[in-house]
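Q: Give me the 3D complex with adenosine-5'-diphosphate.
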Amino acid sequence: TAPKGKPNNKPKPLTDTKTNFTSLREKASILYEQRKKLPIFGHADEIRTKLREQDVMLLVGETGSGKSTQIPQFLVNEFWCRPTPAKVPQKDGSVKSMTVGGCIAITQPRRVAAISLARRVAEEMGTPLGSSSPASKVGYSVRFDTSTSPSTRVKFLTEGMLLQEMLHDPWLTRYSAIVVDEVHERGVNVDLTTGFLRNLVSGKREGRGGVPLKVVVMSATADMESLLGFFQEGFKSQPQLQNGEANGTAEEQKDEGSSKQISVCHIKGRQFPVQTIYSPEPVHDYVDAALKVIFQIHYKEPTPGDVLVFLTGQETVEALEKLVNEYAVGMDPSLPRIQVLPLFAALPQVAQQRVFAPAPPRTRKVILATNIAETSVTVSGVRYVVDCGKAKVKQFRTRLGLDSLLVKPISKSAAIQRKGRAGREAPGKCYRLYTESDYLTLDETNTPEILRCDLSQALLNMKARGVDDIVRFPFLTRPPREALEKALLQLLGIDALDESGGISEVGLKIAKLPLTPTLGRVLLAASEQGTECLLDVIDIISCLSVENIFLNTTSEEKKEAAEIARRDLYRREGDHLTMLSTVRAYAGENVDRKAWAERHLVSHRAMQSVMDVRKQLRSQCRQAKLLPRDDRLDQHFDTSPVPILQSFLCGFATNTARLVPDGSYRTVVGNQTVAIHPSSVLFGKKVEAIMYNEFVFTNRSYARGVSAVQMDWVGEALAGQ
Ligand code: ADP
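A: Here is the predicted complex, encoded as structure tokens.
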């Protein structure tokens, strides 16, 4: 986070001695030569002119055409982008003189992209990044990590963070423009963002003292027609909001001048031909198949030319990383070396940045990525793509009333994007680890997330923003009524809403935390139990935000080794307390963390992320006055597990199952069979009842993140709902 300068000791840019501005400028002028070659560069004047006249622009351009990095730089020196003094009416009827605008926000669906884009744009603009210098003009803000300075003009942030900022500042007063990037991904948060922004641009501007807000919506593939209609509808329906439904034909909309307020811009990309090679027969083990293809490429195809492999998640990435490294050892020494680089959301930042560095001489980069690399992140040098054809997606399981992560076939449009990554700089090849007839059966496009996931967070955000009538909210795609009702019930269950469906005090507090509503509820419950319990729960939640802190040990032999190595960490209460003892041991004083992690078969990489999250959560809790401003409280080792588990039950009362006489577990709500996942320390154990964080469905239903609880606690927690 940005260091808070002392009020009367404001650092001045010129006294910033740490940063070598000359070398930054030199680097920027080298990069300028590269930037000039981007397809978008020739459109700079057109884009500036259009945005001077109109407030909304829809911009379509292929991945890599330069949208995310160049648009903010095209706009930042425009006259309308300057901070403007304005008189802003306040709720109490008074008028406040304040500065409006001056900053550009660019939203991203993924944190990895937000950070790496900010880093790149800072380099291109010749300015230090974020909080590293008070003179920095480019910053970023993602969950658990914000890096900005008092001079930030361009800020990359996740959609979720922009929604958070809107809770504090509904009119987005500090911004002159909001650039919504990657709308084609259609995550829930982008749908909410566009809904709120439509209201902001088409409505009156009293909250901004009359200063306009420009909105640029960018997409690699999206169907711009529907977005155009969506924003036109906003301009058209505005005057009619008081008297009921918006109506009127498309012709009438044009007459009302809405088309004058929205411009559309198409950027033609550059794409070299990419040859597609399908698997001749269906592939059962795509990790193994990918391994073979990687070495086939490495032995047969000339360098330079890096390989980008699309996998499903951290686990498959790490499994393949290990295999490629093992096989590379026995490789013909006359061949170039292989540098394996994983890329997934939970990877610590330093490791993520390595992906963008050019390969050392005589080395081929092999990047193992999740669908992050599909459109969000562009890595140069890639000539070969290996596509497993699958991705992990969130899917709401109505019967269970919760989200689970499922590995599903990707859409045709995603497959085309993946393939395109091979042809950005030269002709390339794309190896699809599925057959051509499988490809033909894929869906055309991704289903918007709002149609398939838990909506409680989205709903809480809307309620906290004062949207009471959810049905009238301008959704890009309207979610099913059933899913909205489920989310309402869930929020009522954790006391985030009051009986009339309005936001409660608890709900407001939860909405301001960077957590899902359930985890937010757990944190609040823990804070009521006292500081020690809260610190412990923060440690556990930090672990839950990382995919897996323990190294994968699925084979029998490895399982035994893990049992021994981790014996002193395992807790019979279950995974939550085991996570806690792991964090405590890892974070202990005088511990060589890397060596400790290796000895205990714990992922040092994952634990570094855990420590980052823990630091951020503690600081958020201090800001929210849930924690005192004193870190010495950290030294305690004797908390009882009961308040910790009971705090978790406040959020997860419906994620519980009890043991039934046949020895299996049945969910308390819904009476479904569920088994404890083999990765849990409680695997194979019989306890009265279990509580779990996550429900995964592979060949059967598994509970992950499991702890033993007592049925009467569950009863109490459910009764409290
Ligand atoms: P788009 O948004 O249209 O997909 P970008 O603006 O993200 O395009 O990328 C434009 C170019 O900038 C890419 O071709 C890539 O070479 C370069 N680039 C983007 N991000 C980074 C980064 N983090 N490191 C190095 N180069 C980058």
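A quick observation: The pocket of adenosine-5'-diphosphate is lined by residues 38, 61, 63-70, 116-117, 119-120, 356, 378, 380 (CB under 6 Å).
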